[in-house]
Amino acid sequence: MILGEKVRSILERVFFPNRSTKKFMNDYMNRLRYIEVTEDGFLIKDINHKIEEDIKWSSVKDVDYNQKRILLTLEGKEEEMVIPMQFHENWHKLIREIPKAYPTCDYDSINAFFDNLQGCDVCGLIAVEEDGECMACGNQKWNSEIEKDFESKEAYIKQMQFYEFEPSEENEHIAINNNPEFGFESYSKWIPYIKVEDYKTITPANV
Ligand SMILES: [Zn+2]
Fold first, then answer.
1. What ranges do the domains of the chain cover?
2. pLDDT tens-digit profile of 84-136?
3. Protein fold of 32-116
4. Strand, coil or helix: what is 153?
5. What separation in Å is there between the alpha carbon of 63 and the centre of ligand 1?
6. How far away, in angstroms, is 189 Cα from ligand 1 center?
């Protein structure tokens, strides 16, 4: 499942799909862009996978980073290119790949950003911010609010893992693992509570 579809399925689960939330979702999806890191640069694609930008690091003169946006100075272009984080998926991967050659780029702050993240019990990536939300899977860290709705922490993690690894199409290969993805490292203490067979024998309602 690509990240855009994941975001859509999370939104669909959170909001009852009435007309206004559908409009909200469509607006959101139309503004969404996906960053694909390539060997020598990166692409920016829209939700229909159409390439809007094809950037090579060799044509980037300088990079300025903060946690809200990336600013690129490009060869032969007067205006800087702005990549706002809010609507660009996979920017974590991009900031990991910035070549260590740009005088303005604050590499220490990029390293500190990743060093401050915690492991996610649901998806198994080190991607949980201070507010407790995972930037890879969108789930919340176990807290007193969630505790009211679930029998135990394990029951919560198991149910969220079920959604997280659920295939979006019938014959899609099910891969239950926490291999590094979206620029996030694997969390060594991650425990998968679900198995591939679970998708054949149970439905989400009785996980
Ligand atoms: Zn997660």
1. 32-116, 118-207
2. 998 899 999 999 999 998 999 999 999 999 999 999 999 999 999 998 999 99
3. PH-domain like (2.30.29)
4. helix
5. 28
6. 13
